[in-house]
């Protein structure tokens, strides 16, 4: 693991720098950075990716972390994958929706522990209904905290033309505590 300082943002990087980049947005980085670091290390080792973990407080930090991950990627920056937990998962979905407007491209976004009552920390708004898919970004929603919301969300994304997948909670292993 290496630690780096992006302008106004502390990030930890796990994995080899020449690998594809996965940006990991986990709210527990604020309270248990070591556990999130261990998760990032497991992901990097088992998945063969470079994992960038920002110490984020708000939506501005999340956007700065996207910029950092893209600027430091060896591979094309539009091949970035983003995994977000809780409200950061909602932010990952929103990022997918707005990537063209933001001038970025994403390979895949994953929302873990999403729910209807969470808002996007970047916009401060609830997640909008997805519009037609102008890009080929894969979308995964893990059926964990609110399985009904996850299933409804995937159905809406598919109806809008996105390649969306509902991931059963028991098949998702990227948890801070492997027993979760």
TrEMBL record:
<protein>
    <recommendedName>
        <fullName>Alpha/beta hydrolase</fullName>
    </recommendedName>
</protein>
<dbReference type="InterPro" id="IPR029058">
    <property type="entry name" value="AB_hydrolase_fold"/>
</dbReference>
């Amino acid at each position: 693991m290496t630690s780096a300082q992006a302008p106004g943002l502390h990030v930890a990087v796990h994995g080899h720098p020449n690998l594809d980049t996965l940006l990991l947005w986990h709210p527990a980085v604020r309270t248990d950075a070591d556990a999130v670091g261990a998760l990032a290390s497991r992901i990097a080792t088992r998945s063969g990716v470079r994992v960038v973990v920002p110490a984020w407080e708000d939506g501005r930090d999340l956007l700065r972390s996207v910029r950092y991950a893209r600027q430091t990627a060896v591979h094309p920056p539009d091949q970035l994958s983003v995994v977000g937990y809780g409200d950061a998962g909602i932010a990952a979905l929103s990022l997918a929706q707005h990537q063209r407007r933001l001038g970025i491209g994403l390979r895949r976004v994953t929302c873990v522990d999403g729910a209807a009552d969470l808002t996007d920390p970047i916009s401060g708004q609830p997640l909008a209904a997805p519009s037609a898919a102008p890009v080929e970004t894969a979308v995964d929603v893990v059926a964990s905290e609110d399985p009904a919301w996850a299933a409804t969300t995937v159905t809406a994304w598919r109806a809008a033309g996105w390649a969306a997948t509902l991931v059963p909670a028991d098949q998702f292993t990227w948890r801070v505590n492997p027993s979760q």
